[in-house]
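fyi for ur records
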Amino acid sequence: MKIISISNNKGGVGKTTTTVNVAAAMNILKKKVLVIDMDHQAQSTYHLGVNPNKVKDSVFEVLKGEKSYKDIIIRTKGIELLPSSPDLKGIEFIPLPAKEFLLKEALEDLDGYDYVLIDCPPSLGVLTLNALAISDYIIVPLQVQFLPFHGMYNLFEAVQMVKKRINRNIEISGIIATMYSSNKSINREVVEETEKRLPGKLFNTLIRENVSLQEAPSWGKTIFEYKPDSNGAEDYMALTEEIISRFS
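which gave:
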């Protein structure tokens, strides 16, 4: 079982899109997948067709120790989901000891999946630390623009702290170039600079700009349901095959 955090401390770079569509591609490839939505905005939950405002219990109750994760997993689109809810933001204010290990302790007996994908919030707060504490790998979606590229180094610095204090085995194992257009010189330059500065980290598959990827969440559908013949579906299937090959 491989546990992978999809993380970047910047919003709007494709974390949720990547989490959901990689999970969907893995399901198509006959892998058993669990998605854990660790963002109080609950975008992975929405994207997988589940209304977080109607979820009785969420990962929030799991972190507080009030519910077992086994009791709140939802099966949707062939994927198992540990849903989020807007209440999750309250974890920051609850006085619990060693809060960065709550998820790890709650999922101590987790088993039976090929891959667990964790959609992290766009910050380096306690929810992201919980995800990193339990993960084997980190994948970073990178919008191929100048500012997101330089902001990514804040995450690299944070991961070094996590390695020292929380999870010594974790590594940033892959970077995904998202919202890529070969017509834009800045996109090409960022890809080249990433390959130069971080050799071996960038996945070969580039996620091209694709309107269908932006539209699919509003229908609560993965790209493979919404537009299976789109560039987005083609790219995420190729990326998923690359992830499976890299982490096998």
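The mean pLDDT is 93. thats all i got for now
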